[in-house]
What does this fold into?
Amino acid sequence: MFEKVIDSICKSKEIGITFHQNPDGDSLGSGLALLQGLLQLGKNAYIISLEECPDDFKFLPMAETIDGKTTEPSKDTDLVIVLDCGNVERINASLNLQSEKYSIINIDHHMSNDNYGSINYVNTKSAAVGEIIFSILEYLEVDINKEIATTIYTSLLTDTGSFRHSNTTENTHNVAGKLIATGCEFSKIHQTLFENTTLDKLKLQGEVINNMELAANNKICFMKVTLDDLNKFNLLNGDTSDLITLGTKIKTVEVAVLIKEAEDKIKVSLRAKSYVDVRKIAEIYGGGGHTKASGFATQLRIEDIKKELLTIIEKELVI
It folds into this structure.
């Protein structure tokens, strides 16, 4: 399948690149790395996105190309590459999956993937999609310069929790080593991502901590973020994905649950420390992800989904 991806890229002239909605460090980093690599190869490549690049990632090279203005493939596009997106509903672009004008390559590392592309390359052994993009660019003999290295290193750093999560492999470290060898400022990247918060974000963390609840012999941590909370701290458009780690820091907790209120739905993030497969839980609600990190969206009220999840997770725990 890897060879099919390479062949399709080589044969295509105009290539659109997109990723999942509410893009994170992996989707943005891998997308911008692929963009730079394809441009280097002389391809007419561009980003398709319904959203602008989040503020936290605007330091990435070519982040300005993620401006939310190009929302569908251009008329001359012959290939669209979707990164880090397990299902059609979450694609950050208006695509026609039945289009005869362009083919779709689906590149992902999640176990739960709908295989919606003309070509589906899903490597669940990769810690991040950035790891896959590195192998593609390396195979295509792209010059992995400092700019490309910065984007891929960001991808790896964010999706492995600074190389702490169990998805980190020997290859992940090997790739990171090659990226550092380009001279990319890896320490500065870490500082920008993890030591660059605002007072409002810290206050929101305090609010979440004050309202968190433990259940099932303190093995489950429930946290919530309401629209009122986001308004109160001026974070309606801010990235709150790091809040889930507040729960996993507690010694007794095996599963952390973050329930976040949005305008039209409730978003739920799940994290597990060791033996619970939270991907299976997310799939019950049409979501997915990894065994230790997953999520989904629902129309249920906060208290209702919390009650349901408590029952489901308790059955998975060794209490």
In short: The CA atoms of residues 1 and 7 lie 10 Å apart. The chain has a mean pLDDT of 93.
